[in-house]
Amino acid sequence: MRHASFQKGFTILELLMVISIIAVLAAIIMLSFTSFRNSSALQTTSENTISILNKARSNTIGSKDGYQYGVHFGTNDATLFRGATFVVGDSSNEIYALDVAVQVSATSFTGGGSEVLFQKFTGKTDQYGTITLQVSSDPTKTVTISIEETGVVGFQ
C-alpha cells in the first residue's frame, strides 16, 4: 500500500505574496503618517509664528526696555529683534527655528523686505502684508499669515 506524502510548510510563492502584502500595507501607513506629521508641523509652526509676532508687538506697545521690536523672517527661522533695524548676530536677538518640515516660502510686506517692525505705543506697522509657510516636501500645503496695518496678526 502506497501512502501519499504531504510536506508541511510554505512555498516560496506564498512567502513572496505575504511579504508583498506587508510591504504595501507598510507603505500606505508610512505615507499616511508622513502626511499627518507634515500637516501637524505646518499648523504648529504657523501658531508659533503668530505668537512670535504678537510677542514683538506686545513688547513694543509696552515699550519694553525702551525699544520697539520686530521680527525678521529667514527661510528656516524667525528672529525677534529689538531696535529700529534688524542686525544679524545681535546678542538681544531671539532666534526661533522653524520645524524642519516647514519653511517660509514667501513674505509680501508693504515696502518689501523680510521683516516687520512695530511702532511704539500703538503697535501699528508700516510693513503689513503676508507670510506664507509651506511644507518643504509638498509646496501645495501652505498657510498664509496676515499682518494688518494696525499690527493685528492672524490667519488669512
Q: Can you offer a commentary on this structure?
A:
This protein has 156 residues and is an alpha+beta fold. 32% of the residues lie in helices and 29% in strands. It is built from one helix and eight strands. The radius of gyration is 26 Å and the shape is rod-shaped. The N and C termini lie far apart (85 Å).
Name the descriptors.
rod-shaped; 156 residues; N_methyl_site; transmembrane; 4-stranded antiparallel sheet; 29% strand; Pilin-like; alpha+beta; minor pseudopilin epsh fold; membrane
Quick recap of the structure?
The protein has one helix at residues 12-61, and strands at residues 69-73, 77-82, 94-97, 102-109, 115-117, 129-135, 138-147, 153-155. By secondary structure, the chain is α+β, with helices and mostly antiparallel strands.
Task: Please tell me the total number of domains.
Answer: 1
The SSE string, one letter per element, is HEEEEEEEE
Q: Could you give the distance between the termini?
A: 85 Å
The proportion of residues forming helix, as a percent range, comes to 25-40%
Please tell me the overall pLDDT: 93
What low-confidence regions span 5 or more consecutive residues with pLDDT below 50?
none
What is the fourth-level CATH superfamily? minor pseudopilin epsh domain
Biggest pleated-sheet summary: 4 strands, antiparallel
Give the radius of gyration. Answer: 26 Å
Secondary-structure-based class equals alpha+beta
Strand order of the largest sheet: 3-2-1-5
Transmembrane segments: 12-33
Keywords: Membrane, Transmembrane, Transmembrane helix
Protein name: General secretion pathway GspH domain-containing protein
